[in-house]
Amino acid sequence: MKIEIMSLGPLGTNCYIVYQDNQALVFDPGGEPEKVKTFLSANQLDPKAILLTHGHFDHIGAVDTLRKFYEIDVYIHQAEADWLEDAQKNGSLMFIGETIQTQKPDQLLTPEKMTLGNFQFEIIHTPGHSPGSVTFLFHEQLMMISGDVLFYQGIGRTDLPGGNFEELKQSIKQNIYTLDKDFDIYPGHGPKTSIANEKKANPFIPC
Q1: What average pLDDT score do residues 155-177 get?
Q2: What distances in angstroms separate CA 168 from CA 9, 62, 118, 138, 145, one per listed residue?
Q3: Does residue 158 have a pLDDT over 90?
Q4: Is the pTM of this model over 0.90?
Q5: Mean pLDDT over residues 73-83, rounded?
Q6: How confident is the prediction for the chain on average, in pLDDT?
Q7: Are 79 and 161 in contact (CB under 8 A)?
Q8: Strands laid side by side in the 143-147 sheet
Q9: Of 25, 14, 11, which is closest to residue 141 (Cα–Cα)?
C-alpha cells in the first residue's frame, strides 16, 4: 500500500491518497480538486470513497467536485453530520470570511473496523479538536491518518467551537499513545511523525 501527500486548499491541509493495485481512498481533500484528479488519472486509480477526519472548512473544499466527478460517497463522523452544509459550524465564515459548503455526507462514521474496496482499516473516535474528529488506523501498515488531533510536536487547536482540551488530551493518551509505538502518524498539517516521537518529545501531551 502506498500513500500520496498533497498540501491543498487555503491552509495547506494535508490531503492523503492511499492506494494499492488500482484502487484508492481520498482523505481530507481541502481544495484544488484538479490536483487530486490529475494524480488519480496519472496512476490509473479508481477512488472508492472520500473519508473526512472532521468537518472543518480547510478539509472539505474539494469534496463536492470529487464526489460528483467520481460518483463516490463521502464519509464523516455522525457528530458532524451537518457541518459540511453549515459555514458557521465548519468555520469558513469565521476564518476566511467566505462560505465553503458541500452537500450533506453520504455515510456517517462510527468507531468500527471497515472494509472499502481493497482496504481494511479501523475508525476510532478522537474528539477534542472537534466533536466528530476521527483517526483512521491501518494496523497492518502501522500507519494512521489523524487529522488535526496530533501533529509533529503539536496538537490540534481546542479554542474553536466544539473544541475541548481535556477531551483532546484523553483522545491522545488513551486512544493513540496506547497503540504500537511504531505507528506512523500522518497529520492534517505539517510533516508526518510517529507515536514513539510524540510520546518522547511532544511538549503539549507528554507521555
Answers
A1: 96
A2: 25, 27, 31, 21, 16
A3: yes
A4: yes
A5: 97
A6: 96
A7: no
A8: 112-116, 119-125, 134-138, 143-147, 184-187, 193-194
A9: 25
- Label residue 151 by pLDDT band (50, 70, 90): very high
Q: Using CA atoms, how far apart are residues 72 and 68, in angstroms rounded to an integer?
A: 7
147 CB-near residues (< 8 Å, 6+ apart): 28, 53, 54, 59, 126, 129, 133, 134, 135, 156, 187, 188
Could you identify the residue written with the cell 478522537?
126
What's the grid cell of residue 46? 479508481
C-alpha cell at 97: 470570511
Please give the backbone phi and psi of residue 3, each rounded to the nearest 5 degrees, phi first. -140, 130
Q: Is the pLDDT of residue 202 over 90?
A: yes
